Amino acid sequence: MKMTRLTRILCGAFLLILIIPFPGSGSGHGDSLNKKRTTALLVGLPVLHGSSIVLFNELWYQNQPRENFHFFDDGKEWNQVDKAGHLYSGFHFNAIASRLYQWCGFNDMKSDLYGSATSFAFMSTIEILDGYSSEFGASGWDVLANAGGIGLYLGQKLVWDEIRIHPKFSFSPTGFADTRPQVLGGNFMEQLFKDYNGQTYWLSFDLNKFFENKFRFPKWLNIATGYGSTNMIYARKSENYNAGYNSYRQYYLSLDIDLSHVHTRSAFLNSILYFINMIHLPSPGLEFNKNGVKVRYLTF
Questions:
Q1: Model confidence over 143-160: pLDDT tens digits?
Q2: Residue ranges making up the domain that contains 255
């Protein structure tokens, strides 16, 4: 399976979720460093970063012709659904990296700042490698989207000292992949990452935190806005139109289940809960598109 940039970033994020302990809460506002963990972090991060460069190069670039470093303008491709994916990835990479620094005992502010820098460095490495590939090329739009996701995490922590807006993801299989399986995926796992028609990216708003002391909402109940697109078998709108497909954007308003308030004594279980909370679970909602408004009993 040939992987896109977004696929590589998401796979890296999912792997980190499984191996990084997720405590029920941060370490507070004062440093209380664990020397063994901090040493492991200071040694492990450069090794992990260097190893990832070698791994990416061997897995995804070794059979591709190399060119001088160059940029590729993909800002008008896939109706920017892939850029929403980069924002989503940047946010969660930052959240995961921040938790890793907290695990070592750094205070919340340092953890968030160090996590932001670590996330941006890792995600930018992929763009640099793409910049030397004849098949890809570095994308300035991807870099901006990555930074946007990192900024969405860091900005909330700086303003509210907590996360109130959670980026989420959902996917539904479509029939478009059957038309171009080599591009959109030949099986479910490939389509999950490559078929942008079936992907929806969400921003889930924590009502309980936004309206604390004003209205009482269940802690698990959020409101989410979603974005997606359909009728795309090619990257650009003009290519789809020439092939007989009128691609268009989709916007959603839906209820959402928020598991961020659930904490357990098990670091592994907390990691699993975090992973589940990255997904928008099926909920009632509305879809808005160029054809009007559609009521959906379950949006996913």
A1: 999 999 999 999 999 999
A2: 164-300
Angle at CA of residue 10, ends 4 and 14, nearest 5°: 145
The pair of three-digit structure tokens given for residue 170, joined into one six-digit string: 């959902």
pLDDT score for 47: 76
Tokens read off for 272? 């699993």
Distance (Å, rounded) from C-alpha 200 to C-alpha 202?
Answer: 7
**Helix extents (H) in the chain:** 5-19, 35-56, 81-104, 108-131, 140-160, 181-184, 188-194, 207-210, 237-242, 267-277
Residues of the chain with pLDDT below 70 are 1-31, 52, 55-64, 213
- Asked if residue 220 lies in contact with residue 257, where contact means CB atoms within 8 angstroms, the answer is yes
- For residues 238 and 189, give the distance between their C-alpha atoms in angstroms, rounded to a whole number: 28
Instruction: Tell me: do 36 and 131 sit in the same domain.
Output: yes
CA dist 35 and 40 (Å) reads 8
Residue 126: per-residue pLDDT: 81
Boundary residue ending a domain (135, 163, 191): 163
Q: How far apart are the first and last CA of the chain?
A: 25
d(CA 254, CA 204): 9
Q: pTM above the 0.90 mark?
A: no
Note whether 63 and 29 are same-domain residues: yes
Q: Are 113 and 94 in contact (CB under 8 A)?
A: no
